[in-house]
């Protein structure tokens, strides 16, 4: 049985687990006031080319999104978010639970939005009887596997600054975005273009943990109280620091992400060779394939996966996800279990 | 330097960490749908003598309290909570952040409340211009180290049922309560007397994790959606299941708690022998001692601790906490570093 | 200058104002505990053929929608609402401010939704990682002037009951809906088919005030506390009771609404005769007309109105609204001021 | 039957009602964009000696408090509020419903707080694990009839500014405070010392309506959206403007308040002459008298009043409130109905 259901099916990368084991009984101050968290923050600041950035550590992605976005907004402000954005579609109303409206923005097939999509909404919401859009949420990689180019993110950032909007990037899969062949962004670009962004650990080698970066620290003032108020402070906070230190000390974070992307590429190439049709051609670690419904039992028998959405009456879009633990043998094993389809 | 600042200064008990390591790269379904979580739930249900109980796993205590209490209430309902209760005093408004008022209840020196304290508030709030009290929150052990007896909890439970109030017990330190010499409650009593209670892992041998028990499963309907909405679902949910399985499989949870209590007893006896004055005589793992301010630097030099509150102009209440990792040598080492005081 | 901007440009109908004046210095208990409110409740119950209904009085429409809808939902539940529904588009996030997500439902040109639109959303949201849809919000008349037929509302009601959804009807313009020639519903139908609905006073002869009807009183339990908690209880509550008594004592409410509808019909017929194009053919008191942009200054000079939305590069949809105070002379005066257009 | 239950038992002062009648069918823009509201704002600004102040109009007191206080705070901030403050004790959790904690501040018998009461709470809450106190709420007159002196309010204002706290004054009964013999404050002092304060119309001659003043308009930016989001914008907003214009055009507001205070003084003097004991000696329009329980039926027979709280086993504190409509004959009539008590 091959694991392709998601990128959080395995625990931590062995080097990360080893770091946790080595420090387990040391005795450390709680709440992220420890030296591991301090070093992890320094490593992240350095990787971002942003020595003054504020870096907070949270446990999971939904928590990070809800906490960061509601932290940035005033009560009458809303978030512009792609219809398919995680904040809008997959978080059980966690963000609205903080009292804010989402303004859904039409997205392209890859899950990306552009200033063209944002502009009419911003103009419409000048009406003081409506919410004021206060931030743009986007994810990189997107929920459909897409990545933003530097030009695209720059245009969005310029638009946000011209319109008094914060730009927040959900980086739950940021590693796979930044190591994708389709990508030309680096962490310092994100630090320059965004007001806040997360660097996901959960889906890239950690047991759990997301780093939240505020390139301009003044914007992060009192964030700790907000985090506490959201139940989002881990008592044994060093656990996240230790993991991010292990991930960032010598580029492990990017090595793991690049590997996942490569496995997804191998899988997509293989599926195409078998005559299977991709729903989107994903440059990151999520693979979306259109499967004839009659073949779903065959798939069930060999791998875990997620049903993404119906494609048409006789076909279904299926998502297969790779991660640090996916081996070429896993990919090839899956491929050899699948039938050749007439193109 | 001896660690007495709190009971979350160390990672996991070695057997818990070992279980995490052994399962690290297995591949498991997310969100607590795995077999470890299923077994851990069964073990907890068995320990509670309550085979039908719903058991949810959350990451931390503040998160658990805010999620459980707001889950149980309607918007116009409030929580009756001891003034010194964690929900009221130590969670940065996380509970009020869900939109509910706290009605502070006077507590005794040990942090406990009784029906005598609740009754006038309940009567006053029959006025429909006020919130309706919807639940009683209490913690066992309390923030001051106190434990409820079976008679006391029964009286509170009876009062709650007679007044349409849910009874929620915050068990962040439930292990140390249940293994205390002052205790005559067992898990099945809690399951019988409460509507929901938590069993804290963070402060008793786990890296993190709280089990939330709803003895009557009908009351827990849709709790998973609530948990998700609160950002309180761990993606790699099996991590909590694995830990609680390790803790409950052969009573490790209680062994660790009993040890912590014994170390606290040893510490309190030793402090008294040295002529130091206890603020309260705690039957659990938190020790509160009145320290002449002039001696605080001496304390700083030998151990970590927490300043609890001023006692008077020249003395301070200091909290020292023991845990599974505290050894008799730690206690004795600390005691031998402290001066004899004139009684 | 003719007033067609909205249906809340004038104060109260003279008979309503007279009732307020006559009772002004009587001395009455506050908060709706007075005899006028009691009588108004009885009149509404009688009109609804629902002697046991709970009837609450609130001040305004946004307040009523946010209070009623959040009252009916648990925190993890969302509201299914037409994209163009007032709750979604015109209330500055008041509903989301209570912590709930809106699931926007595609609506037809008249602003109405059907079970066909609801079904895929309900199916999709069986996923426990998403909010549970808890109610369907719709307005009658809709924001685009449409009215639901008995068949349509019955189908929606059946769907709601089959799917565990409450059905809430925003009746800010219910008078104009029920007196429209396109309508075959009566208040007892609403009482039978809905879980809660409002009867708008503000837009139909009152200074302010909305009656909120819960046909099944058990569902309204503790609503007063909710209303208070939302800042939605008027201290001098009898002011709303007096007004609704005046409106319902001999059918004034329906007379005023019917008049407004007739004035809108007269206006639409006249506009069409002049060769102007209607955006929708509205059976109620809101008229939507497509105006060449070059003619907008002509319109500005003779009447107040609202720009609804752009139609295309050279034309704009304009809304003209009639009310109890609109006279045939107003309509004809406006029409004679407007130019004949080539069809 | 004499009406002393509260100061919202009667409608509007005849001059206010006359103004509403005179303008009833004029046709006015909604949402407070009318000329009456503009003039009322100017009159209030002039009375406050603060030509640049932002002035918003809301419907009721609880709504005004919840909207203003939550507008001024960030999510992790709390409000310091006298235990007996309306925000804490009488609003059914409306403020906590916006997601903020109240830190109750001990108050004196007259319901007033001082910097001495605030300081320890502010110091304690420097701890980043707690909420940050963001504002001080107080009411003038207080719920117990007390008024703040200029010295007292200046000290509180200085303390707030030194500690980064906003100062909000709930002026639901501000008229009776400012016209009390015990008062030495004027509106310009409030404008100088506070960040926001309300001027209550409901309890002093209006049908309803509270003016909310932000002396520094920059602080009020986007308040309209917040008001809308809270369901607190009246569609026919000119109704409040018309009333405040009538109240402020030639000092009617203060004449009515002064009259109410004088009637309360006459009542207190009379009660004392009869040997009745006052609970507090109130300088404003609320009278608190300790009534032997055996006499309550006598009171029931002659007047409406409110039971305030038990005094002891045999006596009850009763509140009697005067207003613009209370006549000397009402007071004397009540007094002659009451028995002489042995002192």
UniProtKB/TrEMBL annotation, chains A, B, C, D:
SUPFAM superfamilies: PLP-dependent transferases
Keyword Nuclease: no
Record protein name field: Aminotransferase class I/II-fold pyridoxal phosphate-dependent enzyme
The Aromatic amino acid beta-eliminating lyase/threonine aldolase domain, residue ranges: 16-291
Family indicated by similarity: Belongs to the threonine aldolase family.
InterPro entries: ArAA_b-elim_lyase/Thr_aldolase, PyrdxlP-dep_Trfase, PyrdxlP-dep_Trfase_major, PyrdxlP-dep_Trfase_small
Cofactor section: pyridoxal 5'-phosphate
Organism listed in the record: Candidatus Flavonifractor intestinipullorum
Domain of life of the source: Bacteria
Gene Ontology biological-process annotations: amino acid metabolic process
One of the Pfam families matching this protein, by short name: Beta_elim_lyase
Molecular functions per Gene Ontology: lyase activity; transaminase activity
Alphabetically ordered keywords of this record: Aminotransferase, Pyridoxal phosphate, Transferase
